[in-house]
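A brief tutorial aside. Many learners find it easier to grasp structure tokens once they have seen a single protein encoded end to end. The record that follows does exactly this for UPF0033 domain-containing protein. Read the sequence first, then the structure, and try to relate runs of similar tokens to stretches of the chain.
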Amino acid sequence: MTDPDAKPALALDLRGLKCPMPALRTRKALAGLAPGTALQVRATDPMAAIDIPHLVRELGDELLASAREEDALVFLIRKA
């Protein structure tokens, strides 16, 4: 992981959504971003801890950081 201080161009609040919606919404958001752009995703579904990193690897994008903040998992992703 590199540059965890990257400022996200877009932040998705997916708290309350259940699998597979966080991954599907993240995929859609990444598809609309320009290369090099950062996306922050916040989700409460426990499966997001597996699904989001897997999605990022599958798409060839970069997971810059992941953390747990209060009730949510937070991911910082850079579009390849």
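Self-check: Residues 10-78 form a domain with the Translation Initiation Factor IF3 fold (CATH 3.30.110.40). If you spotted this yourself, you are ready for the next section.
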